[in-house]
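dumping this here before i forget
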Amino acid sequence: MEGELGSGARIAIALIVIGVIISVIFVILGFTRGTTNQGITTVQNSMDSMSLAQFDDYDQKVLSGTQVLSAIKLFEGRPVAMVVRTLNQMAKADHTGHNYGALLEGTSTTTYVTAALEKDEGNSYYTVNIETNSAGVMKFNHVILPLTKTGTETYVRPTAKFLSELIKDETGTIVGICFTQQN
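structure:
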């Protein structure tokens, strides 16, 4: 009988040890999951910050025409509206500009696309939504040739100065940049 009690005690001890090991594994997995979730959140926040930081160079800054052309090429193919307002173009119609990249609501469909831009009282940015078709797909203007074609109202002189201002949609998300010629 003594041998039977000894083997039963060994089984009980083994079960307790296995239970403790399983508990330790669950605690480690829970800690690892919490750390992983925190790490994912940190990486996501960093990516969001980097996404917004790309627009810092274009928020209320004065840029040369060359920098404007570079910015349009930098954002080419991305869902960002780029509106260029030259002095010649604004002389013909106030609050308009040539819209490159993602098109804005209220944009005409002519060869020289214009976007009506007006700021709300007290804002340092424009509020306009991105244009989409009936399926919800963004519309784009990828023809940037008018920027470099001399003698046109859309020509961007490399030495001209442009004030860059952000364009946000109704939710406050940055959707574009407006470059307005100053001289």
